[in-house]
Amino acid sequence: MSVLLEVDDLKISARRDDDSLLPIVKGVSFYVARGEVVALIGESGSGKTTIALSALGYTKPGLEFAGGEVRLEGEDVITMGSDQLRTLRGQRVAYLAQSAAATFNPALTIGEQVTESCVLHGILNQEQAAERAETLYRALELPDPDRLGRRYPHQVSGGQLQRLMAAMALCGKPDLLVLDEPTTALDVTTQIEVLKAFKSVIKQEGSAAIYVTHDLSVVAQIADHIVVLYAGETQEYGSAEQVVSDPGHDYTRRLMYAVRPPPAAGQGDETSGEHRREAPALEVKDLVAGYGKVKDGKPAITVLRDVNVAIERGHSVGVIGESGCGKSTLARVMAGLLPAAQGEVLLDGEPLEPALQQRSRSDLQKVQFVFQMADTALNPRQRIDHILGRPLEFYLGLKGKEKRRRVGELLQIVELPQEFAGRYPEELSGGQKQRINLARALAASPEVLLCDEVISALDSIVGANVIELLKKLRKQTGVSFVFISHDLSTVASFADEIIVLYAGRVVEKGTTDAVLSPPYHPYTRLLISSVPELRVGWLEETMQTQEAQAGIDRVVTLTDKGCPFFDRCPRAIKDTCDQETPPVRMLSGGHAIECHLGEAEFAQ
Amino acid sequence: MSDITQSNIQTTQFDELPDAPPKRKIKLSWAGKTGVVVLIFWAIIVAIGPMIAPYHEGDILDEALFMVPGGGEYPDTDFQPPSKIVYLGTDYLGRDTLSRILFGARTTIGISFIATLWAYAIGVTLGIAAAVGSKPLDMTLSRLNDAVLAIPSLMLALVMIAALGSTIPLLILLTGIIYAASVFRIARSLGQEVMVSDFVEAARVRGEGLWWIITREILPNIAMPLATDFGLRFVWIILFISALSFLGLGVQPPMSDWGSMVKENLPGLIYGSIAPLAPSLAIATLTISVNMIVDDISAHSGGKLAKRMIS
């Protein structure tokens, strides 16, 4: 195999305000052969994206090349002029950003955007480009390839958009693809579908790729070689097989340790009953909620239907499901951000006002919401001590010295140094911001914490740290948690009970062990089997299973009639599942499954 | 920046938490610094201009001043070139350009600045109210605003001044209202954007009142773009008032105003007079310096972010 890209002793530095240089990448070397995928793996701040971008001859503002060479077929891209770079980026190296939703322009059709770059660079004319795009749609297994180009980005699902971004990059037949965390923000089922499409299209096109990610189990599926990075230095470099099965470096082993084990029974923490009381801390009864005008107790778009959840004191309940299943809506109803159309929310057995404007201050204090994105949930213009101090002042009336002392304590609880009190959110890393976000909710001394995807945006090591922190908090304070996530492994390691939501309905609920061991609801089975395992060849095996073939690459649809999972279920019974609302089957120990299948059939 | 290193950081005691952590300072670039210097210069002129002016703004200089020794005839006093008697020459009526610029600084900058502040007071108040308020309130305010925007601003001003007479307070009031309409739109859209952000939602879940949300969550986050706009709006208001002055409805003679000085001295260009150029230069330096400062501040809040995050 001929070498396509050679990165030789690459050094990149940041220029500080006082003009001194801070090395970010400290002499990294690797090469990419034609038709090969090389993965750069490391946690945030390891310089993996910075290195990947150097293949395009690009550095982020504030950074500069400090040494070494990046040779594409022998030509050094670092020393290229801007004209050459334009040709390089347009024709030879293509970049796929993390978020497809942010990459596509909502005002232009998909076809225009996929073909734009290669037409602009004169590689193909508009007709050829459109033809090529269609071939790519087929290769990427996108639905309705001959008409897809005329649709707009909002008309396709997130996973499809992610694959369309690959089509956009591949349209000009580039020699090298740079993929920056292309599946990180996706649901497990979507992730598989995208991974599979990427893998086969890369093979078909024979193009080489650099794949940037923090997720070892994803890398194991797609990469030929792996470069493990920490703080801008190569820790380990070898074939995927070797790195995954026989890691030679401590840091690689740490990364592997941080990979959450596949969800299985027996991982949940057993919480003691010491904080228990008569009534559950928070309970939701016969809830119907949605968006739009409420008419006869029914909103214009009903998201949640007949949802019943009870969170015992000191317990944590995991809510899981794919995007669009109503997880966040449930949390918003509990917090009072979205008043329910029917049903009620009980706090300590007492009904809560549906809308938060009517709730008393002490009710508000008891239920705290932790937002998903710490980046946007902290006011960038407020210092940390103000962010943490406000709930103390607002709910508890603390002022002056007392308040400052408590801010210090809170920082200690979330394991951050005291100096952070004087910083602004933008001066913190993602994981640190998430800790502040958590500390703000804790400042209110709440009884229930609603955590909406709190670790989804963090990489595995940082995420694992935050989970440890949550476990400690639960032990110390007896706070109840509603833990919302699309990541089954995370929920499995944290929750006492799990609720599986699909299209706004509870399809299965029970203790963590019960939900994660057979009998399963078919949807739960799909979710469990979609979590990538840390071994080479897992992807191919999984794609053979009937769950994967039936359930992957479908969007969640809200229905009034029958079982919403009908169209994705490998064992759906025609004329029953699509017509009749499935019955709730009560199994032992409060384990409930909503399905037409009988207990005997679940066990298979 | 990684979380790995955190366990190694020694946590200090609560008591050592500093009383008031230092505020971040905005470091200005050379362009910004130049802008500040020029702006300070004009601020001083506004304060002491009339005191240091060699003549009064309305004085039509005596022909005798320009007599060439030995020459018998009295020369024309209009459009005199710069000399030791008149450092920047004279205008079309034979008045000292320098003195008129020094006096005019007060009228031009003063009126425009107060009018801009006034436009902002109305525009931001109503804009934020529309952004955070109920839908009917937003609709009412926005449609009213559209109505104001629909009337050509100069026509509106002409009619009002024709009816009520030209006085400086009326000029300020009117300019403020006319420009408040565009400020309203900007404040409203900026406010709406922040209003749907997660941190405002977090404040609402906490149970914060509207006043807190407006003053602590929204205003600090829209202050920067509004400040940028303030600079531009200020410049436009200078031009607007100059236009009114040119039509004879703005600043009334013999008071001087930079904008009207440019227009009334335009014929002087033919004679190579600098009478129209000097006030243009004054307007240019003022407006450009305002923009340079504004650019610097907004660049600082965004552009250098990446730098600060990695160091």
Q: Could you describe the 3D structure shown?
A:
- Chain A has 604 residues and is α/β, with parallel strands linked by helices.
- Chain A has a domain of 256 residues: P-loop containing nucleotide triphosphate hydrolases (Rossmann fold), CATH 3.40.50.
- Chain A has 24 helices and 22 strands.
- In chain A, the strands form four sheets. Chain A has an eight-stranded mixed β-sheet, sandwiched between helices. In chain A, strands 6-7-8-3-9-10 form a six-stranded mixed β-sheet, sandwiched between helices.
- In chain A, helix 4 packs parallel to helix 7.
- The two termini of chain A are 47 Å apart.
- With 311 residues, chain B is mainly α.
- Chain B is 64% helix and 0% strand.
- Chain B has ten helices and no strands.
- The longest helix of chain B has 37 residues.
- Classes of the chains: A alpha/beta (604), B mainly alpha (311).
- The interface between A and B is large, with 66 and 43 residues.
Key descriptive features of the protein:
heterodimer, A: 604 residues, alpha/beta, Rossmann fold, eight-stranded mixed sheet, six-stranded mixed sheet, 24 helices, 24% strand, B: 311 residues, mainly alpha, MetI-like fold, 10 helices, elongated, disordered N terminus, disordered C terminus
Write the layout of secondary structure elements.
The complex is a heterodimer of chains A (604) and B (311).
Chain A: E1 3-15, E2 21-33, E3 37-41, H1 48-54, E4 63-72, E5 75-76, H2 82-92, E6 93-96, H3 100-103, H4 110-120, H5 126-139, H6 145-148, H7 158-170, E7 176-180, H8 188-205, E8 208-213, H9 216-222, E9 225-230, E10 233-239, H10 240-245, H11 250-258, E11 282-295, E12 298-311, E13 316-320, H12 327-335, E14 342-347, E15 350-351, H13 361-366, E16 367-370, H14 374-377, H15 384-396, H16 400-413, H17 430-443, E17 448-452, H18 460-477, E18 480-485, H19 488-494, E19 497-502, E20 505-511, H20 512-515, H21 522-530, H22 538-544, H23 546-551, E21 584-586, E22 592-594, H24 599-602
Parallel strand pairs in A: 3-8, 3-9, 6-7, 7-8, 13-18, 13-19, 16-17, 17-18
Antiparallel strand pairs in A: 1-2, 1-4, 4-5, 9-10, 11-12, 11-14, 14-15, 19-20, 20-22, 21-22
Helix pairs in contact in A: 4-5, 4-7, 7-8, 15-16, 15-17, 16-17
Chain B: H1 30-52, H2 97-132, H3 135-150, H4 153-164, H5 168-195, H6 198-206, H7 210-246, H8 258-264, H9 277-302, H10 305-310
Helix pairs in contact in B: 1-2, 1-9, 2-3, 2-5, 2-7, 3-5, 4-5, 5-7, 7-8, 7-9, 8-9
